[in-house]
Amino acid sequence: MAATDSPSTAVRRRDLCSRGIRLAGKMRADVIDLLDTYVEQQGLDASATVGVVEGVPLAAVERWDEQTGTQRLLENLVAYRAFRALLAQMLEEQREQLGEADAGLGRALAAVLLQVSAFAYHLEELLQLESRGIPSEEGDGPPPLPRLSLFEQKLRGLGVLRELAQWAVRSARDLRQLSKPS
Amino acid sequence: PQNLKCVTHNLHKMLCTWDVSSRGRHGQTDFCYTTNDLTPQVCFKTEETRVEIPVPESSITVAVKSPGTASAIKEFVIHQKDISFVPVTPHILSLTPDFPTSTLNLKWSDNGLDFPYGLDALWQIQILRKEAMEEVTKVTYYSKLTHENVILSWNWTSDMPLECTSHYVKIRCYINATQFVGPKDWSDWSPAEVIPGKDTEPGGSGVFPLDTVVAVGSDVTFCCVHEEDQRITNMTYGSKSYTMMQLSSRSHAIRVLNASASNSSGTNVVCRLENGMDGSVVFVGYAPDIPQNLSCETSNFLIIKCTWKPGRPSGLYGERKTKYSLFERISSKNVSCEVNEINRDRVCGFPVLPDQKTYDFILDVSNPIGQAQSSLLVDITQRVHPKPPEKLTVTGNNSTSIQLRWFINGSFAGIRILCQIEIISGHSEKKLQNISMPGGKFSSYTAQLNELHPNTKYQFRVRCSAADHFWRWSDWSRGVDQTTSEAPPS
Hints:
The complex is a heterodimer.
Chain A: H1 7-41, H2 69-98, H3 103-129, H4 150-179
Helix pairs in contact in A: 1-3, 1-4, 2-3, 2-4
Chain B: E1 2-8, E2 13-19, E3 29-34, E4 42-46, E5 50-54, E6 59-65, E7 73-79, E8 84-85, E9 92-98, E10 103-109, E11 120-129, E12 134-144, E13 151-157, E14 167-176, E15 193-195, E16 206-208, E17 212-215, E18 220-225, E19 232-237, E20 240-242, E21 245-248, E22 251-256, E23 267-273, E24 276-285, E25 292-298, E26 303-309, E27 323-328, E28 333-337, E29 347-351, E30 358-367, E31 370-379, E32 390-397, E33 402-407, E34 416-425, E35 430-438, E36 444-449, E37 457-466, E38 480-483
Parallel strand pairs in B: 1-8, 17-24
Antiparallel strand pairs in B: 1-2, 2-5, 3-4, 3-6, 6-7, 9-10, 10-13, 11-12, 11-14, 14-15, 16-18, 18-22, 19-20, 19-23, 21-22, 23-24, 25-26, 26-29, 27-28, 27-30, 30-31, 32-33, 33-36, 34-35, 34-37, 37-38
């Protein structure tokens, strides 16, 4: 945190953090629901092991305790920007493959994408509070995704949603850490 | 010399061979032949125990003197019936795979130039598969020789994807030379041509067919190609595990019989390996039904609206969904139709063309599994179904008559319009009055209603259609109320 926090900044940070924590909680619940729908609709095995999906940042982090507030926010922002692009890709593939069928899954995906976008914006607000410039989006987005086979697309979607659920948990922890008085 | 045998490959020349004792094997042999009394004897020397000489019409006399002064001349009379006819081994020109359809295309030359016109030829084509080159099928193909070298072409569709394992093709032929009296036999098999499977490619792996579409009820073979050192644990189709067949050390397959319709995201075919998994998705659906009750009409002489009953849903969605297009033969104009597979309303719009009354429509319906068509020949002036009249207003009124005006959206200048006015008076007496008039272009129409009762409340509404060749009434317009004025004092 900035060495000398003005009272209003501290209050503002706590407010943004608590709202962020609630948003992360809601997002996690929705992602878990979406995961169930996704697994069933895509005919996947819920216990299927999915390797590391290219372009999906891992929520697990070593020496979590030692991270600074800004590091936490920056890592979160990079992750949610990546998820935004990946979910948009999934939505596009969904439309391409299913068209009007299973609009329910499409709507659920779009809803989670909206939440991820909102959360990313939220993180940007927090970073501004840290009087930190917001990293530009060019260049750090996920690499263009290779054209995958349909089964690989299904598995990647599973991997993206699982990792997003993990990130929602981590983000809540990060924001709780951030909202503690330093 | 003994055991003289002669074989011809082209009915013109024949190759004769003979045995000699070990003593007579070195040095030059004197060889002479005469085909009949009229032609002079032909002689020559040869180091070998085989010669190529003409095939005789009936017989040929051959004299052979082995090397060495002491050996005697040995004479043979070879009759045509003693000569065997074995066609030249066919040469495969090309073997081309089409992976999406698992089809092999074989091309070869029939060497017809060597033979008289019109001979029947039989070709046996053998397909082999797997590392052990097991025979899959042997097919006989018939052709007629035309005294020209013709390239023959033949297709074969495998019951499994060509990527699964190597496919080999061999061919041999038999020519029914009816004039030739000697024994006839099949040629030798050609060398095998191969289409290598993915299981022979370094790093080749995956489940095949990849992301394909098949018809409900199909029997489908899926294979899993993996690295040599990877052990495959199982293969599932949907949620069911299947018994695997081994095609090679790097390829295993399962056979799914009578595949049932998949859900919208397709059925997963998953190959589980010791350290990972691979998979494919198959979409099992129906070919489109022939569209029923194709009907076309226009409401405004700008757009022709065609509707139909689609029949059974295809079960295919997104980029595999059934596509519709409307082709009009007279103008050769083609329109693709945007159709929602879910709410299943089937409508397609086609522009009314200047100076064209008759339309010869073909509705083409297709998806990756099949295609169907319906056609309709229609005179569009006989298929007018206007929109409900709008802005119905009273424009004139006295004690016994009322004038109405309304607007119809559309360009009806070429036809007469028939409108029906519904008159409901206060004591719920309902009357219908028809009136016809020349059609106009996006114009209003008027009607005068007479013999009404004074000081009476009336409710009017109107609907219209084509006057000549009635097709359908429009819906009723909105109603309008009007009370006639009081009768003037008499």
